[in-house]
Amino acid sequence: MTEEIRLLAFSAALGLAHVMAASTAGLSQRGGLAWAAGNRESEGEVTGAAARLKRASANFFETFPLFAALALAAAVSGKQGGAVTWGAELYFWARLLYLPIYGFGIPWIRTLVWGVAMVGIGFVFAGLFGWSGPGAP
């Protein structure tokens, strides 16, 4: 398994962590297990950390398909290493940090970490078209 595919798999697991964090954090505000087991006619509003985790999860699922498509394109085209690996690493580690940073409500740092993840996606994209990565000729 290549490093990029390993990071893609870890990122998918991180997506599951986002879903679990968002759903469990808001459960008590929505009515507990009775609400969860019901038909959920209303989504139920959440506030505080639960709302932040819900937004963090939505944000993850806005970026993950882009990363996944690019990581798979790199794997299929044999473009592993260099910028692709750098980008996959940046994306995964930034997204891993993003969840608790957003959950705890730390502004500015959250935005910076999101930007690092976007740079990671950009590196993977650039690597597909021949860029070797930071410091490469």
Question: How does this structure look, described?
Answer:
The chain is mostly helical. The protein has one domain (3-128): Four Helix Bundle (Hemerythrin (Met), subunit A) (Up-down Bundle). It is built from five helices and no strands. It has helices spanning 3-30, 32-37, 48-77, 82-103, 109-128. The longest helix is centred in the middle third of the chain and has 30 residues, at 48-77. It is elongated. The two termini are 27 Å apart.
Give a short summary of the structure.
By secondary structure, the chain is mostly helical. The chain is built from five helices and no strands.
What features would you highlight for this structure?
137 residues, mainly alpha, 5 helices
Topology of this protein?
Elements: H1 3-30, H2 32-37, H3 48-77, H4 82-103, H5 109-128
Helix pairs in contact: 1-3, 1-4, 3-4, 3-5, 4-5
Helix content: over 70%
Termini distance?
Answer: 27 Å
Gross morphology: elongated
The CATH homologous superfamily is called Membrane associated eicosanoid/glutathione metabolism-like domain
Which structural class fits the helix and strand makeup?
Answer: mainly alpha
Radius of gyration: 17 Å
Oligomer: single chain
* Overall number of structural domains: 1
Are there runs of 5+ residues with pLDDT below 50, and where?
Answer: none
Which CATH architecture is right?
Up-down Bundle
Tally the beta strands.
0
Q: Please work out how many helical segments DSSP would assign.
A: 5
Main location: membrane
Protein name: MAPEG family protein
GO cellular component, one term: membrane
Organism: Methylobacterium terricola
